[in-house]
């Protein structure tokens, strides 16, 4: 899922990617009932491309169901598709790509898919 805003000649975009932990038993034997669906994922990663931005100019606030990101030039208010644990997230800035990656641990109920 990606969204693109055009402002003059510069682009601002974001992408949401889901991650899951798998081991050899999942890949070769299929023992843990995991599927590629988001129901089997542990983390949500929001990748935000922000050209011409310095890390010092960014402000990030994450709650259990909303991500708020601001710079002097850009603003993103993103309702999250799954509840997350806002205390266990981490953010990483890549200055070469002008890209912020925010990894958020999703809150999941334990069931036959998530144990």
**Structural class by secondary-structure content:** mainly beta
The neighbouring-strand order within the major sheet is 1-2-3-8-7
Q: Low-confidence parts, pLDDT < 50 over ≥5 residues?
A: 4-9
Distance from N terminus to C terminus (CA atoms, Å) equals 27 Å
Q: What Rg, in angstroms, do the CA atoms define? A: 16 Å
Oligomer: single chain
Number of helices in the DSSP assignment: 1
Total number of β-strand segments?
Answer: 8
Order of helices and strands: EEHEEEEEE
Q: What this model shows, in words?
A:
It is a single chain. With 115 residues, the protein is mostly beta strands. The protein is built from 1 helix and 8 strands, in the order E-E-H-E-E-E-E-E-E. It has one helix at residues 24-29; strands at 2-7, 10-19, 43-49, 59-62, 66-70, 75-79, 84-94, 99-106. A hairpin with a 2-residue loop joins strand 1 and strand 2. The longest helix is centred in the N-terminal third of the chain and has 6 residues, at 24-29. It is elongated. The model is unreliable at 4-9 (pLDDT under 50).
């Amino acid at each position: 899922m990606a969204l693109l805003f055009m402002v003059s000649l510069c682009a601002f975009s974001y992408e949401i990617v889901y991650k899951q932990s798998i081991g050899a038993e999942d890949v070769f034997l299929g023992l843990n009932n995991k599927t590629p669906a988001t129901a089997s994922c542990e983390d949500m990663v929001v990748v935000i491309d922000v050209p011409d931005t310095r890390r010092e100019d960014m402000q990030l606030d994450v709650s259990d169901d909303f991500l708020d990101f601001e710079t002097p030039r850009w603003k993103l208010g993103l309702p999250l598709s799954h509840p997350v644990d806002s205390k266990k997230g981490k953010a990483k800035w890549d200055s070469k790509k002008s890209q912020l990656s925010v990894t958020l641990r999703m809150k999941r109920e334990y069931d036959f898919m998530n144990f």
